[in-house]
Amino acid sequence: MKWKTLAKAGLAVALSTALLFGCSSKNNADPNGQKTLTLATSADYKPYEYTDTATGKVIGFDIDLANMIAKELKLKIEVKDMDFNGLIPALQSKRADLIMAGMTPTPERKKSVDFSDIYYESKNTIITKKGSNLTTAKSLIGKKVGVQLGSIQEKEAQKLKLNAISINKVPEIIQELKAGRIEAAIVENTIAEGYTTNNPDLSFTDLPNSEPTGSAIAFPKGSGYVKNFNQVLKHLKENGKLDELIKKWFQK
Ligand code: ARG
């Protein structure tokens, strides 16, 4: 009788332990058994991602959002800064687990990576020195137009048959513009807003997009994380947390 009770108790402990661990591994949204994910970004894109001069750390909307999602999935994020043009190669060669860099999910990129749902919409703009009459795609023909190397803006400029000058980092594009070495640049609206606020000698106008824009998270092809991240993104859209982040970084 005593033995039976003991055995029963033992069984109960074993069962509940199995349940506990069974449960936690089920809820562990980390299909690869990894705890820290390496996030590749190109920290030249304020307010999406940029280096905080005071701390030397990469901060911004994408970094906050990455950490917010990671927290729900019980993961940690480690940020790796690199050239925008090197982001997808880094993912493909497993030097990174995901990309958040204001990256647009284009059909071409979808051949080499998988994207999450779009988490922020954007538009293209033409940024010039104030007083310039370069305000339409047509007016840019024959002019030197700065674009970021490897970006959809570079593709757009090529499509419009412009004299595109591809530049590695976005702040360098603005420097070239201010120095008069290029006459205009194509950048996203939020980026243009930031630069024109800080540089009263610059202004911008919208450039109608010929292709969809917006930002999504990139993962290696076939990654199980896409589903998990999309679930959390959906949740953050519904509970207003994503809107809070958008207000924090884009509506200052
Ligand atoms: N949305 C554009 C693209 O996907 C530009 C993104 C640039 N991002 C950056 N962190 N510099 O091509």
Structure description:
The strands form four sheets. A five-stranded mixed beta sheet has the order 10-9-11-8-12, with helices on both faces. Strands 5-1-6 form a three-stranded parallel beta sheet. It has helices at 2-27, 61-72, 87-92, 152-159, 170-178, 189-198, 225-238, 241-250; strands spanning 36-41, 44-45, 49-51, 58-59, 76-81, 98-99, 113-120, 124-129, 144-148, 163-167, 184-188, 202-207, 215-220. With 252 residues, it is an alpha/beta fold. α4 links the parallel β9 and β10. It has two domains: 25-120 and 214-250, D-Maltodextrin-Binding Protein, domain 2; 124-207, Periplasmic binding protein-like II (D-Maltodextrin-Binding Protein, domain 2, 3-Layer(aba) Sandwich). The chain is globular and about 50 Å long. The protein has eight helices and 13 strands. The structure holds arginine. Arginine binds next to β2.
What's the CATH first level of the largest domain? Alpha Beta
CATH superfamily of the largest domain: Periplasmic binding protein-like II
Strand percentage: 15-25%
Spatial strand order of the main sheet: 10-9-11-8-12
| CATH architectural arrangement of the largest domain | 3-Layer(aba) Sandwich
Distance between the termini: 72 Å
Mean pLDDT: 90
CATH topology of the largest domain: D-Maltodextrin-Binding Protein, domain 2
User: What ligand species are in this complex?
Assistant: arginine
Shape: globular
Overall structural class, as computed from helix and strand content, comes to alpha/beta
Summarize the main sheet: 5 strands, mixed
The amount of helix comes to: 25-40%
- The total domain count is 2
Spans of at least 5 consecutive residues with low confidence: 10-30
Secondary-structure element series: HEEEEHEHEEEEHEHEHEEHH
Structure summary, number of beta strands:
13
Write down the Rg: 23 Å
Put simply, the count of helices is: 8
Indicate the multimeric state: single chain
